[in-house]
Amino acid sequence: MSRLTLLERLKAAQQTPKYQGRDITTISAVLSNTALARHVEICEQAAGIAPKAGEPSGTTTH
């Protein structure tokens, strides 16, 4: 999965009530793609967001 796609998913998670008022995106600047994918997966699970069909969670193509 591309870094851009992961960042878009993280931005969507940021908009959920669970993360309003919290910054979950800044850390992405220092994370590898693998670590970012895991961060996105954990944030989506906590926010109750199911991964989209066809998007494997926690994996990257780079």
Alpha-carbon distance between the two ends: 7 Å
Beta-strand share of residues: under 5%
What's the pLDDT, averaged over the residues?
88
The class by helix and strand makeup works out as mainly alpha
Q: What is the tally of helical segments?
A: 2
- Give the total of domains: 1
Cα-atom radius of gyration: 11 Å
| Oligomeric state of shown chains | single chain
Output the helix-strand order.
HH
Percent of residues in helices: 40-55%
Task: Describe the main β-sheet briefly.
Answer: none
* DSSP strand count: 0
Uncertain stretches: none
Outline = globular
Write the layout of secondary structure elements.
Blueprint (H helix, E strand, L loop, with lengths): L2 H12 L18 H15 L15
Overall description:
This protein is mostly helical. It has one domain (about 5-45). Helices cover about 45% and strands about 0% of the residues. The chain is built from 2 helices and no strands. It has helices spanning about 5-15, 35-45. Helix 1 (about 5-15) runs parallel beside helix 2 (about 35-45). The longest helix has 15 residues, at about 35-45. The mean pLDDT is about 90.
